[in-house]
Amino acid sequence: MKSPASFKKAAAWALPYWTRGEAGRDTPQDLFRVLYFGWLVAFTFKVLGSAWDVSWHFMWLRDDLAPPHLLNSAGTALAVALTVIHGYTGYGVDKAALRLIQWGTGIFLIAVPLDLINHRVNGLDITSWSPSHIMLYAGTFFMIAGVVRGWFMGAPPGRERVVVLGAFLAFFLENVHFPEQHQEYGILSLGAWDNHAVYAEKILLQFAADQMGRPVDRVMMTGFTLPVPDYLYPVYAVVVGLSVLVAARLMIGRFGAATLVAAAYVGFRTVAWPLLTYTGFPPSALPFFLIVGGVLVDVAFLVRMPAVRAVLGAVGVTAGAFGALMAQNAVMGPVYGALMGQKELLGAPPLATSSAVWAGLGLLVAWLAIEWFAARRRPLPVPAPPPPVVTPATP
């Protein structure tokens, strides 16, 4: 633990900065780094809590004060504090970044009581795609977008700028992909049921069955574990998830950026998998296909013309991502029945392969929109000064 002298020293350093100011004011570099490393800590708490949360809800009946919620709340509290600091002092953000952070934090804080009310009225949320949950994701979406912009606009060039930007974009990918975890956990829980192994406690299954007006049978389990159409998972993953990787490649501006952002997120999920399963929590399918998509995004950016690479990239990414999903599907099913000691990590929720057409078109539109927006925001070149007028010498 830090000594009182350390806290006094930190307070003496921070207090002179606690002055009212407009967004966009000059920010000392040491203060800028402290603020954004604070955001890294906040998002780390939120990601650790959310990673645990889905697994928790596939095992136990919901509890407002469940440990994953408390861990996520610690990150939210720090995020709120940082939002107040940015808003009051104006340090570390321009007006656009501040508005995004404030709107995102506000939406999230409004969504929290709405979600609690929803659970009080309706009991369980059978799906992570419910309106109150979507509000939580939307609030976090704008919050991280503001932080990404603030760091992108204010961090000095160098390795630290690139690494931290990549970390923020990996948090962004985690947030947009989060609702897909319902299907990633659901498919393995349904496979376990088919092999006479059950992850969830009996009170949770009975609660869900009573809510659906059915006995605890396979129809009820299917409604609980896979409550959305089969086309939603692949189309959303390709259009939304891979759009984040396109934006990451554009912002970082280096070959391999999209792949590394995808690998950072999938790597975190891969490390969390045994930590959860070997402590008794349900397993999930892992979205390895996002790494395939990241590689194809990076390859597409070798084409210099934005419109051409958007077309080629959308076709390639869609084919590659669906190919990876289908390969994962091929090994999915009864092999996931074992409650513990699961040996096979690959797997993916059911997917409607015909939806690849719509996923490809959606990604193409999103890719072109990102390219267009990035081109509009790119600073115009400064014109060269006119050559000096040379007056001929008088003979």
From TrEMBL:
Signal peptide: none annotated. The chain crosses the membrane at residues 34-58, 70-89, 96-114, 134-155, 162-178, 231-248, 255-273, 285-303, 310-331, 351-370. Keywords: Membrane, Transmembrane, Transmembrane helix. The keyword Disulfide bond does not apply. This is DUF2029 domain-containing protein. The lineage of its organism: Bacteria, Bacillati, Actinomycetota, Actinomycetes, Streptosporangiales.
